[in-house]
Specification:
Shape: elongated
Radius of gyration: 29 Å
Number of strands: 0
Largest sheet: none
Structural class: mainly alpha
Strand content: under 5%
Length: 410
């Protein structure tokens, strides 16, 4: 019975999408579509109007029913307008303009209908999926619904859609699903991506639920590439307040431990998180990372095969910036060299993701938003000191310290 209901819902959504497409086509060329007797767009919409007494009896669809009735009247009026007089021409122009406006309203109402059906189906699946050993088809269906929902909210802010999301309680359902370790990692990751999409949809409305809920702890405890990717994205979106929450939840030690993971992808994403925390973090968060021996770990990573230094590339770029002031021809040549060296730098970083990682972290502190100027100076000295303690030779210490000082512009 439940399977039949799901299939019916999917069929309804397919029909609604076709009707929405028909209303969109009608907006593009109303006069031509209306005068074509076999126009599929007009036929589909007028057939819906004919059945409106039964299909559109829902109170939410009253407005749609009125728009369809208005469309039928306008189409009939346009069909009756004949002749080549100025008066007939003006009537046709007015009618086609009105048809375009009505078609826009119909498309909007159909989208609202689709949104209601889609969100209701998604909430039912989130709430009803068994934690242990769900059917593969059920899991695939839920992933499909989550993907559809993300695609919808990624189209941009819509107040009616936001009201539906809030009334449905879908954020809480997603968070509950994310935090349930009995669900598969894939489904939990999909839930995390959907939460991230809602934050992008309207950060001001949904960010509070991230602060008050267990999302951050769940993302860190999952320790997967996708969960760290979402965590980095949330830090970029919410900035210092989210870093405060990370520090308050004592999650920074776990993030630093990702730098020692045997999985390279986790190491790289963990380092990305560290860079974002460095940019947005306040004094307490930076101190917490340094207490967890972050600088010592970064020195080890820079020493590894995936490390290295970028100082020579950086010097080339600095020289090219100076060339920009030596005349137009020299400037163009300098810009070409600068683009080429940026490409070389990016290529090098793809193969050596931890190159100059100490200096890159130091730069984040310097240009970031979380620290006062005197705090930045103090942390620079602390980094230089920790580099000296962690280096295996004076030469290594001198190289890394020079990078830090050069990146800082000292």
């Amino acid at each position: 019975m439940e399977e039949v209901e799901r299939e019916d819902n999917q069929q309804v959504l397919r029909v609604l999408e076709l009707l929405k497409e028909a209303s969109h086509d009608l907006q593009s060329n109303p006069s031509q579509l209306v005068t074509e007797s076999n126009s599929s767009a007009i036929k589909a919409l007028l057939e819906l109007e004919t059945e409106s007494g039964t299909i559109l009896s829902d109170q939410n669809l009253n407005q749609l029913s009125q728009h369809l009735s208005h469309l039928k009247t306008l189409v009939e009026t346009l069909h009756k307008t004949r002749g080549h007089s100025l008066r007939s021409f003006l009537r046709r122009r007015v009618s086609t303009h009105q048809i375009t406006r009505v078609a826009e309203s119909i498309e909007s109402e159909l989208q609202a209908w689709i949104d209601r059906e889609s969100i209701e189906s998604l909430v039912k699946r989130l709430h009803g999926l068994p934690s242990e050993s769900p059917d593969s088809d059920e899991e695939s269906e839920l992933i499909h619904l989550l993907t559809q929902f993300r695609d919808r909210v990624s189209q941009g802010f819509n107040r009616e859609l936001q009201d539906l999301v809030l009334k449905s309680g879908i954020f809480s359902e997603l968070e509950t699903f994310l935090c349930n370790p009995d669900h598969s990692k894939k489904l939990r990751e999909e839930s995390a991506f959907t939460i991230e999409a809602l934050i992008r949809f309207n950060k001001n409305v949904f960010v509070g639920q991230v602060w008050m809920g267990p999302t951050i702890k769940a993302l860190v405890s999952m320790a997967s590439g996708s969960s760290l990717e979402v965590l980095c994205s949330l830090i970029k979106s919410i900035k210092s307040p989210l870093v405060d929450e990370i520090e308050a939840n004592d999650a920074i030690p776990s993030i630093i431990r990702f730098l020692s993971s045997e999985d390279l992808a986790i190491q790289v994403l963990g380092f990305n998180c560290v860079l974002e925390i460095g940019y947005f973090g306040r004094k307490e968060a930076i101190e917490a990372m340094i207490r967890e021996e972050l600088i010592q770990r970064l020195v080890e990573m820079q020493r590894s095969e995936l490390g290295g230094d970028l100082i020579e590339v950086g010097k080339c770029e600095e020289e090219e910036e100076e060339e920009e002031h030596r005349g137009e021809r020299e400037t163009e040549e300098g810009e070409r060299k600068q683009r080429r060296n940026r490409g070389e730098r990016e290529s090098y970083l793809e193969k050596h993701p931890f190159a100059s990682c100490v200096a890159r972290f130091a730069v984040q502190l310097e240009v970031g938003e979380g620290l006062r100027q005197r705090e930045k100076r103090a942390f620079k000295q602390e980094i230089l000191k920790k580099v000296g303690e962690a280096s295996v030779s004076d030469a290594e210490a001198a190289t890394i310290q020079a990078e830090v000082l050069w990146e800082y512009g000292v």
